[in-house]
Design brief:
single chain; alpha/beta; five-stranded mixed sheet; 12 strands
């Protein structure tokens, strides 16, 4: 190892990809190499370091203690090398790339229509694989390298995770306009008298809305709890149900039809919607390009204001 002249330094690029992806096929995609070529490189790396480096466990490769020691120093060294030689920018119009994203269907609703339209115009060879999981699982997958980027609400982050704020989101209420009569909104008493729809992955009341009500000494009746943001608005029409959700998934002003949108009759703190990634992705030109594109699509100036 002390004789650099006898080492194929390209092997270290393969090792960096394997440590990030923890999967031979995904590392091959990232490097634009064949799976056998990456497997052969891994065998050479094991001989070079006299260590297994990555051991198969279930559907992925787990790093050995030696590999975990190498990973941060290798990532730092390669970052310096890229700066030294001048890292080539990612060319979205020509290069092929697969990104793995994790997000809720709320994030899918507010991001994917615009993102896919841009990708099909500007980056026709860029593909996305989107998965959904809880906040905790998404952070774990990001750390383990199973996904490239996670989008959601992350109040706290592990040390090795990076984040950028995409927008600040506010809540709004949706009801059947006919059920409101001549009124355009509800006071708190009327709100509490109505049955409600709760959007929650777990179906519990540990959410911003019910926590805000509880802090004021109130509780609402949940007539329907479901995990799908996209389905919820359509369930209000023709009923006395009230839906209180993030404003961005509701129809725009002038497009509500028989439905009515109004401000909640009590204070609900807004939430901050972010994208997160592992620090080992910082210097990846393709990853940086995608992060910047998502920032452009969901930039804070486009956020819906608190007043309606």
């Amino acid at each position: 190892m002390n004789n650099l002249a006898g080492i194929d330094l390209n092997l270290l690029v393969v090792l960096d990809a394997l440590l990030a992806e923890r999967h031979v096929s995904r590392a091959a995609l990232r490097l634009n190499k064949s799976q056998p070529a990456v497997s052969h490189a891994l065998a050479r790396l094991r001989a070079l370091f006299d260590d297994p480096l990555l051991v198969r466990h279930g559907g992925q490769l787990d790093p050995t203690v030696r590999a975990l020691e190498i990973a941060p120093r290798l990532a730092e060294a390669l970052a310096h090398m890229r700066q030294l030689v001048g890292s080539q920018p990612f060319d979205p119009g020509r290069e092929r790339h697969v990104f793995r994203l994790a997000m809720s269907d709320y994030a899918a609703l507010v991001l994917l229509p615009q993102l896919m339209a841009v990708l099909r115009r500007q980056a026709p060879n860029v593909d996305l694989i989107v998965s959904q999981a809880s906040r905790e699982v998404m952070m774990s997958q990001t750390i383990d390298g199973e996904i490239d980027l996670a989008l959601g609400v992350f109040p706290t982050l592990a040390e090795d995770l990076r984040t950028s704020l995409l927008f600040e989101e506010y809540f709004a209420c949706l009801a059947d306009g006919a059920s409101l009569g001549d009124e355009k909104a509800m006071d708190l008493a009327a709100y509490l008298e109505r049955p409600h729809i709760l959007v929650s992955l777990r179906g519990d009341t540990g959410n911003e809305i019910d926590l805000a009500l509880s802090a004021a000494g109130h509780k609402r009746r949940i007539a329907l709890a479901l995990p799908h943001w996209s389905a919820a608005p359509g369930l209000v029409l023709g009923t006395d149900l009230v839906l209180t959700v993030a404003r961005r998934i509701l129809p725009r002003e002038g497009e509500t039809g028989p439905l009515a949108i109004f401000a909640p009759p009590f204070a609900i703190p807004p939430f901050f919607f972010r994208q997160i990634w592992h620090r080992r992705r910082d210097g990846d030109p393709a990853h940086r390009w995608l992060r910047e594109l998502i920032n452009e699509i969901l930039s804070p100036p486009d956020a819906v204001p608190a007043s309606m």
